[in-house]
Structure prediction request, 90 residues.
Amino acid sequence: MSEKKPTPLVSQPSGKVCPVCGNRTYSQGGIHPQCAVHQADAARCEKLKATRKLEVAETTPSTWRSKKCPKCKNESHVRRKVCDCGHTLF
Prediction:
């Protein structure tokens, strides 16, 4: 038996191609609706990721033996409950 697939007699007409995913699209604008949403939200998602990274960097202790006071930014021992400035540590 032959393993070859038959070649089509009529080729597919070239249609609109989505600029985001590269697949053929039948929508009026030439872009899939879900791809348009993904493209529009890309900038906002990058800003959110950047702010989350900054928040995590500020809240994580510098070492396992010390933690920073959010009020005066001084490092104190992990077991200390109250900082020198009077702020209650967690």
Observations:
- Strands lie at 16-17, 24-25, 66-68, 75-77.
